[in-house]
Specification:
This protein has 89 residues and is mainly α. The protein contains four helices and four strands, in the order E-H-H-H-H-E-E-E.
């Protein structure tokens, strides 16, 4: 599973919360650390995700909505009966 960054952004925007406000709620002095996480440049830690969800009005047991299931990517068939799968994490 990976964090669904589009969902995180959509939830933030739907609530009218700016990146500046999210950063402030996280205890950061500027929006840059938050923006880097929302844009996928920096990984979001579990504690950070819980805190972000809380700022957005979610309880820790509701953070599942911010996860995206990853499915195997199918590569081209080598032979008619053989398929190769790659797993992403």
């Amino acid at each position: 599973m990976t964090v669904d960054l589009l969902r995180l952004r959509a939830e933030r925007m739907a609530r009218g919360i700016t990146q500046d406000r999210m950063a402030e709620g996280m205890g950061w002095k500027s929006r840059t650390p938050y923006a880097k996480r929302e844009n996928g440049l920096v990984s979001i830690g579990a504690d950070e995700l819980i805190k972000m969800a809380n700022i957005l009005g979610y309880e820790p047991n509701q953070i599942g909505i911010f996860f995206q299931l990853t499915f195997p990517k199918e590569n081209k068939r080598r032979h008619n009966h053989e398929r190769i799968f790659y797993y992403t994490s």
